[in-house]
Design a protein that fits this description.
Blueprint lengths: L1 E6 H9 L3 H13 L5 H20 L7 E7 L6 E9 L5 E9 L5 E2 L5 E6 L2 E6 L1 H15 L1 H5 L3 E9 L19 H6 L2 E2 L4 H12 L5 H9 L6 H11 L10 H15 L7 E8 L5 H14 L4 E4 L3 H15 L8 E2 L12 E6 L20 H8 E8 L13 H10 L2 E8 L9 H11 L13 E4 L3 H11 L3 E4 L18 E3 L4 E3 L19 E2 L1 H4 L4 E8 L3 E4 L4 E4 L22 H13 L3 E9 L2 H4 L8
InterPro entries: AAA+_ATPase, P-loop_NTPase, SLFN_3-like_DNA/RNA_helicase
Organism: Metaplanococcus flavidus
Keywords: ATP-binding, Helicase, Hydrolase, Nucleotide-binding
């Protein structure tokens, strides 16, 4: 969606008459029906006059077109400024200009990452050249007008009109050698580079004739290019990690058979609810579905409410393919608030039990939740769910609710169940035994099989065995406060076990890829970080929110020791009412203790629980 599409002369007039903010606000209201933040209005006020000056001095012929606020389809990202026209040789061109109000920046760790002052504090963000180049590549891979009509040449650059670079440009952080590849492909212009930017724009669009180019870009059908689809497909071919076995194959074929029967021109909806516990291969099915349906030219996206899980999937697939555009297939569950009815052919939602009523910082729509929005936005919605992995009072995606939401929208509901275990060394016995222990089912189930489960007598030993020897990660229940503010640049060591003189920090909240980043070895993952992920070995610190009462010979949940206030439901008023937190804490530990593919080692802060014979498998 493009908010503003006018000739360059009209754009210059709107700026000179101080009408550009008013015009854009009106167009946003007309096309998107929502308000604009004060910071966004300030960016228009500060940046667009700078571009109007460049265009005024560039001597462009009539018919050159300016496109503002081009919202990249199915993303929250928008291209600030795009100009279209022909050059002196009659070639059709479109130039993306990413506008920044930055005053300074510093080199930061990571490919294409810099540090600058944003939103009231110093933050890490992408280099402007990387950002503008990524927008260019996104359009080249998703806008049919640009990858089918090769006559349009798309280029990109960034303009930091307030930024005075270092006098010795070799010392300028944004021009450091580590960013050279991005700057070469998408040049960066600073405050006194206006003549250079004017020259670049003039050489690309000086002859005007940009109306038809702008129309093609604005009306271009949005679907992935053949090149991108082939790159995704190559990741799955012959890769044993994605081979479908038994029930996985049955579930996969069930979805395909329903998809093949769909009349994509009609309004009839279908919803498939796939129920399966930890390690039943839900994600493998979902990723195979995405791969196959992309090849069938379906408009499809893969939804994961857990940001960490989503980022790990993206990094694994991008690393193997080299296509950063693969990121665009993976979305958070809050991305569909404003999506039109039936916009997508298929939406696949993994970890659907983590869906929320409303997205964080999103415009709320009365009577809708995230499940409503996903079903509304697609002709076929596929949800992978496990009610026993609901770990927060905010999690709404239980089977019953998803079924009810689908029926409200007259969507035909299909149910598929998965039982076979593909994690925890394929040990169904371990899951049965774990359920028996955690949920006090009092059954005679002995721990048996190949899964490596051990209880250790100190958190230091847990760290040594899991992290040092096995290369795994430590995880913990939410029985400690989480202070996110660093002290002298260091993460506070919140997870403390005083009796063993042990202290480690929670996982870095800014490090979304904690599970695979080297720094993660000395940090403790929480349930909100690891749900959906799997590792070969995990070490679990069970806090004092889960204890053992030797008199009643049962495991008990201690509300007063559970520190996740946002996930904690209200305490029941009735004396004999069951506390809903009891189930959530047990679910949390079941989820944590099923992240390991080969083994899980446990240390319990509560001494009685750590010595519990049943927990030790005897």
């Amino acid at each position: 969606m493009i908010i503003y599409n006018e000739t360059s002369s009209k754009f210059i007039d709107h700026v000179l008459e101080q009408q550009i903010e008013t015009v854009l606000l009106k167009k946003v209201q007309e096309k998107m029906n929502h308000s604009v933040s004060p910071s966004e209005i300030r960016s228009w006020t500060n940046s667009l006059p700078q571009m109007a000056k460049i265009l005024r001095d560039a001597d462009l012929k009539e018919g050159t077109h300016v496109l503002l606020e081009y919202k990249l389809p199915s993303t929250e990202k928008r291209i600030d400024f795009l100009i279209t026209g022909e050059d002196s040789e009659g070639k059709q061109n479109a130039v993306i200009v990413e506008l920044k109000q930055w005053g300074k920046a510093q080199i930061a760790e990571g490919d294409g990452i810099v540090s600058t002052y944003l939103g009231g504090r110093e933050r890490e963000t992408v280099h402007p050249s990387y950002q503008s180049l990524s927008y260019k590549r996104y359009l080249e891979n998703f806008n049919e007008a640009l990858y089918e009509d090769t006559s349009i040449n798309l280029s990109s650059c960034a303009y930091l009109h307030n930024y005075i670079p270092a006098r010795d440009r070799t010392a300028e952080p944004l021009l450091n050698d580590r960013y050279a590849n991005y700057v070469e492909q998408s040049p960066i212009f600073f405050q006194f580079d206006d003549l250079l930017l004017k020259k670049r724009i003039n050489s690309a669009v000086s002859e005007g004739k940009g109306t038809e180019i702008a129309r093609k870009i604005e009306e271009g059908r949005i679907r992935p290019s053949k090149k991108l689809v082939e790159a995704v497909n190559s990741l799955f071919e012959g890769n044993e990690e994605f081979i479908l076995l038994d029930e996985q194959k049955v579930a996969y074929e069930k979805v395909l058979s329903i998809y093949s029967s769909l009349d994509l021109e009609a309004d009839k909806k279908h919803t498939i609810l796939i129920k399966g516990g930890p390690g039943t291969g839900k994600s493998v099915i979902g990723l195979n579905l995405m791969n196959y349906l992309l090849g069938k030219e379906a408009t499809i996206e893969y939804i994961t409410p857990n940001q960490s899980f989503r980022e790990i999937l993206r990094k694994k697939l991008i690393g193997r393919s080299g296509f950063v555009e693969i990121r665009s297939f993976f979305k958070g569950s809050a991305a569909y608030v404003e999506t039109p009815n039936n916009y997508y052919d298929v939406l696949v939602c993994d970890e659907a039990h983590r869906l929320k009523n409303q997205g964080h910082m999103k415009r709320k729509i009365e009577g809708e939740n995230q499940a409503t929005q996903i079903i509304r936005s697609s002709k076929l919605s596929v949800f992978f769910i496990d009610d026993e992995q609901v770990i927060s009072n905010k999690d709404i995606g239980r089977f019953a609710l998803l079924k009810e939401e689908a029926e409200k929208q007259n969507s035909t509901v299909h149910v598929v169940e998965l039982d076979s275990q593909f994690r925890c060394a394929g040990s169904g016995n371990y899951l049965e035994w774990l359920d028996n222990v955690l949920y006090d089912r009092k059954q005679d189930i002995q721990l048996d099989g190949d899964f490596d489960f051990q209880v250790v007598d100190s958190p230091h030993k847990l760290y040594e065995k899991v992290v040092k020897e096995k290369g795994g990660r430590l995880l913990a229940g939410y029985a400690w406060e989480w202070n996110t503010k660093r002290v002298n640049g260091e993460l506070p060591k919140d997870v403390i076990v005083e009796v063993h003189d042990f202290a480690m920090p929670w996982n870095d909240p800014t490090r979304i890829d904690w599970a695979i980043h080297p720094e993660g070895a000395d940090q403790i993952g929480c349930i909100h970080t690891v749900q959906g992920l799997e590792m070969e070995y995990v070490g679990i610190i069970i806090g004092n929110d889960l204890t053992y009462n030797p008199e009643s010979q049962s495991i008990e949940v201690k509300r007063e020791n559970f520190k996740d206030k946002g996930a904690r439901p209200a305490k029941p008023k009735g004396k004999y009412e069951i506390d809903p937190l009891d189930q959530l804490v047990r679910n949390t530990y079941k989820t944590l203790m099923t992240r390991g593919m080969k083994g899980c080692y446990v240390y319990c802060v509560d001494e009685e629980l750590n010595n519990m014979k049943l927990l030790k498998g005897s």
